[in-house]
Amino acid sequence: MTLGQLFLILWARKWAMIGMVTFGIAVAIAVSFIFSPRYRAESQIVIDFKSMDPISGAMLVPPGYLSTQFDIILSHRVALKVVQKLKLAENPFAKQEWREATGGRGSIEDWLADLLADKLDVVPTRDSGVIAIRYTSQDPQFAALIADTFAKSYIETNLELRIQPARESAVWFDEQLKTLRANLEAAQGKLSAYQREHGFSAIDERADIESAKLSELSAQMVSAQAAGSDAVSRLTQLNEFLKRGADPRNIPDILGNPLVQNMKAQLSQSEARLDMLSSQLGANHPDLQRLRADIATQKQKIRDEIANVVAGIKNNQRIAERREAELRQAVALQKARMLNVNRGRDEMSVLIKEVESAQRALDAANSRFTQENLQSRSSQANVMLLSAAVPPLGPRFPKLPLNVGIGILAGAFLGLNLALLLEMMDRRLRSARDLVQMMEAPVLVVLERTSKGLKDSRRGIFSRRRRLTRPQTA
Predict the structure, then answer these.
(1) How many Cβ atoms from other residues are within 10 Å of residue 123's Cβ?
(2) Is residue 76 part of a domain?
(3) How many CB atoms lie within 10 A of CB 109?
(4) Between vectors from CA 137 to CA 133 and to CA 140, what angle results, nearest 5°?
(5) SS3 at position 35
(6) At residue 397, what are phi and psi to the nearest 5 degrees?
(7) DSSP assignment of 392-457
(8) Which of 82, 188, 204, 287 has its CA 20 to 30 A from that of 54?
(9) Strand bridging mode 383-387 / 120-124
(10) Are 327 and 220 in contact (CB under 8 A)?
């Protein structure tokens, strides 16, 4: 079947198509008046999901954030908050519908929340953080009220979901702060008791003092050891001189003694004078006898002084040994004291580290408590109401122009099918092509008759008749 044949068939069955289109329009008009109108109100919110958290400073860009917000809006918690805000459970008509639907079982608030959520649509805006909350109802005022209340309830719920964990964390950190503060006080108490018991006030200062004492004693002991070695060497040299029978006056310590040398010089002068007087005076001269007695006294003094020097060398050796022993003992005691100080410093360092660790733990917990406490008191959310819902001016369903348009399309489609069905049941010749297909014979000539040609011929006949009869009437 060609397009021309189809057109001829439709033109021949045009009244059937017109009837079906008229029927479709009638049905659309009937449906528009039979069904109750449905009004849809829309409230828009904007989510600033890329902003920075004012308390923690973290970027709020978790994966699937918007999908999570859709689920929150459609959640039973938000719907239940809407029911409680509007006090719908106290409405007598709502109570009656609830009893008829559930027989009085369950909670009316939960039933109303589920009923509201079923009629709610959440539509995201492409490539933005704007979310449209739409609610459909028979009453435009009620639809706008529900959509607007859902938006506000979601904003409150979003803020609660952020505040509630922070509030619970703040309570937990508050309890932990008490324990950590007690631990810090216990560690500080141990440190103070240890300082009082061992006399540590400033451990580094005491260690420095004890170390300086040890260094000083060590230096003194080194000097004492050197002096002792020198005294031993001098005593050894003296003993060797005495063993060889040498004159003690030739000992370096005696030779270096200024008193002995002075006395020896005086003795030399006295002896020289004695020699001079001996040649001038007699042997028994009183001056000579007095000078000889004086020389004997000087020699005795020199011997006594040499004996004192020898005794001094031996005494110095004994003193040096005793001094060295005392310093060695003092150094040993100071070393023991230093070891005690070091051990105390190590123990005190452990106590100090415990105090510092407890302080750090307390500071960290206090910081987290402050952060969570501030966040639990926050009244700002990253969700804002962009536009409140307003009562719609016209219903969303049914729409008469749209329904009539759908009725026309449906009637045209049914009329087309009806025309083809009627043509199949009563097939007729519509064109020369139909004759060729049915007779399988060539068409020699086609006589066309149009309504326009017939009218023109009729007009000519009537005009001639008027012209022929006009003179007779005159």
Answers:
(1) 12
(2) yes
(3) 16
(4) 90
(5) coil
(6) -145, 140
(7) -SS-SB--HHHHHHHHHHHHHHHHHHHHHHHHHHS----SHHHHHHHH-S---------HHHHHHH
(8) 82
(9) unpaired
(10) yes
Structure tokens at 159: 């803020």
pLDDT score, position 150: 93
Residue 49 within a domain: yes
User: Checking phi first, is residue 87 left (phi over 0); if not, alpha (psi -120 to 50) or beta?
Assistant: left
Do 243 and 254 belong together in one domain?
yes
- How many structural domains is the chain composed of? 2
Tell me, yes or no, whether 346 and 390 share the same domain: no
Residue 371 to residue 25: CA distance in whole angstroms = 67
Per-residue tokens: 370: 């402050």
Residue showing tokens 């954030």:
65
User: Tokens at residue 447, please?
Assistant: 């006589």
Residue range(s) defining the domain that contains residue 118: 3-172+377-405
**Phi-psi region at 441: left, alpha or beta (left = phi > 0; alpha = psi -120 to 50):** beta
C-beta of residue 284 within 8 angstroms of C-beta of residue 228: no
Measured between alpha carbons, how far is 103 from 67 in angstroms, rounded to an integer?
A: 36
Q: Nearest to residue 97, comparing CAs of 78, 118, 82, 111?
A: 111
Give yes or no: residues 325 and 246 share one domain. yes
Pairing of β 120-124 and β 130-137 = antiparallel
Residue 314 located in a structural domain:
yes
The residue length of the chain stands at 474
> How does pLDDT run across 412-454, given as a tens digit for each residue?
888 888 877 877 787 776 666 666 666 666 766 666 655 554 4
Q: Is 241 among the domain residues?
A: yes
Q: Report, as ranges of residue numbers, the positions in the chain whose pLDDT lies below 50.
A: 52, 55, 453-455, 457-474
Q: Which of 240, 24, 48, 198 is nearest to 128 (CA)?
A: 48
Q: Is the dihedral of CA 189, 194, 196, 199 positive or negative?
A: negative
Q: What is the pLDDT of residues 164-193, one digit of tens each?
A: 887 888 888 888 888 988 988 898 888 888
Shared domain check, 355 and 277: yes
